[in-house]
Amino acid sequence: MKALGGLGAALAMPGVAASAAEPLLTRPIPRTGEALPVVGLGTAINFDVVDDPPKHAALAAVLRALVEGGGKLIDTAASYGNAENVIGALVAEMGLRSRVFVATKIAARDRALGPDALDRALRRLRTDRIDLMMLHNVSRADETLTAFRQWQSAGTVRYLGISTSFGRDFDAVEAVMRHEKPDFLEVNYSLGDRAAEQRLLPLAAELGIAVLTDLPFGRNRLFRAVHGKEVPQWAGEFGAASWGQFFLKYLLGHPAVTAVIPGTGKPEHMVDNLGAGRGPLPDSRQRLRMAQFFDALG
After folding, report:
1. Residue 111 banded pLDDT, cuts 50, 70, 90
2. In this structure, which topology does domain 2-6+35-296 adopt according to CATH?
3. Whether the model pTM is above 0.85
4. How far, in Å, CA of 278 to CA of 48, rounded?
5. Lowest-pLDDT choice from 18-32, 148-162, 173-187
6. What is the mean pLDDT of the chain?
7. Residue among 232, 220, 293, 225 at smallest CA distance from 262
């Protein structure tokens, strides 16, 4: 109840109620045209909890903030400790399954598990269908989605994807994108790590692959870089009222990005993140200024 009260306080913050009145932007998934809200929720670390009622209550408030704020995408993985179990339990208890888009991942090293890996994910997430299943942290150019396509044909998985969190694996990811043509790519991309802009994002646009951005805050390196600094006044041109919104709007300003998935365990941060998906987004000129500003911080 304390966590839910914190959500109410967050929604009452100056500027938040007004921005929340604006609809959350959506972008189409290229393969089908299905609309996906542009701000979702990552669950690594924050949702890896066991037998902690106060923490579970806070995480329930995060999910409520996501859904009530117009979001639906929840990104998790088998390798995120207990996160799948926590998401499954909370979504079931809150009756949110029909209102969320659940994405999970099976590590490339576990691909030999086959149906057992899928059954484990379904059991932990307490669902009979997964919206997006990704091969996690692709590092070899010969990786395939053959087993995943069987699950998709059976209707147990709606969309297929691949993911990476490491720039060193971009060559392999590019190769798999070309020969497998997944529905989704999840890639490490932030204002402080723009390498994906050079090859992977243009290729995703060319092949019609939806893009999710992991590590959008660079494991909090971006926040450390601006510690003690005010958001520049010119950020108001595209509606960035906080550093979190500044960083996320930079990503969403790229036309190839379908959605961002910042992680958080605090409902007020979820509310703030959702603000990045409302109102104007920076154009190419403004994004260049943002990049130059950040680079100048040293």
Report:
1. low
2. TIM Barrel (3.20.20)
3. yes
4. 29
5. 18-32
6. 93
7. 220
